[in-house]
Amino acid sequence: MPELPEVETYRRSIEFHLLGETLLDIRVYNPSLRWPFALEIYNLKNQMLLKVKRRGKYLLLAFSKGWIIIHLGMSGNLRISNQSFPKDKHDHVELIMTNSKILRYNDQRRFGAWLWCIDINKTPLLDSLGPEPLSNNFNGNYLFKISRRKYTPIKPWLMDSKIVAGIGNIYANECLFMSRIDPNRLIDNLNLVETIKLADSIKDILLSAIEKHGTTLQNFLQTDGMPGNFNNSLQVYKRDGKPCYICQQPIKREKQRQRSTYWCTNCQI
DNA sequence: CCCGAGGCCTGCGGGC
DNA sequence: TGCCCGCAGGCCTCGG
């Protein structure tokens, strides 16, 4: 579910509320997530939260003995609340902190993960990730270079975390609309002007979605329970059959690799 | 090596 | 009302 902007929204909120607090207790109601809840996390008891980082869609919490790696899968949610807040049946993990606040992990489908590592620079899950889309080493030249002599369609390629980290189905669709590129185009076929336009669109869209605290479709809520505000900015995602905001032609939907792709057949070429 | 389908889960909405 | 099907912000694993 949550893509880079939603995870970044969580990162900022956790940093604001919980950085420097000590982890008093860990409660696990259901350890059977995508992989079993990492038992090493119990060793972090009585340690201070030192850093809150993000890599792609992974949230990284640093303690002196190591890191908690959180991935939210499709339906994972984080909330920061007081003890009095009633528990939901899909609440699976709670971190109880010294300022009497609880970080609570809720995940209806349990595709998410709570893992552990000593060194985030030496962990297989993160090693294989491509560049951060908002960093300087992600740009149109990079996209141009790695797309030569490859013949996969651009849209599923953008969702491959080895190419660029953090882009999922919503933002892949939106970025291609902004750069006016047909999602079915084969990547080798894009010229440098187009890959530059695409990289710039990716940065634009992600930054603006972060500013609006993400997109709420079904499950995503901010740590205070408020929805994200990027929904009104969506140009194509979930708009099949509705008129394109530029040319009024109906937005088309088709599956690519089992995922819905939305685009304007008139504007995107 | 590369690619795509399958599968992990739960819940919702639409058609009959 | 109920059942069945398709659909949903992801991504690892495995087969060809």
TrEMBL record:
Family annotation (PROSITE patterns): FPG_CAT (PS51068), ZF_FPG_2 (PS51066)
UniProt cofactor(s): Zn(2+)
Pfam family, one: zf-FPG_IleRS
Cleavable signal peptide: none
GO molecular function: 8-oxo-7,8-dihydroguanine DNA N-glycosylase activity; class I DNA-(apurinic or apyrimidinic site) endonuclease activity; damaged DNA binding; zinc ion binding
Residue ranges occupied by any FPG-type domain in the UniProt entry: 235-269
Residues annotated to bind DNA: H90, R109, K150
GO biological processes: base-excision repair
Catalysed transformations (reactions): Hydrolysis of DNA containing ring-opened 7-methylguanine residues, releasing 2,6-diamino-4-hydroxy-5-(N-methyl)formamidopyrimidine; 2'-deoxyribonucleotide-(2'-deoxyribose 5'-phosphate)-2'-deoxyribonucleotide-DNA = a 3'-end 2'-deoxyribonucleotide-(2,3-dehydro-2,3-deoxyribose 5'-phosphate)-DNA + a 5'-end 5'-phospho-2'-deoxyribonucleoside-DNA + H(+)
Similarity comment text for this entry: Belongs to the FPG family.
Protein name from the UniProt record: Formamidopyrimidine-DNA glycosylase
Gene from which the chain derives: mutM
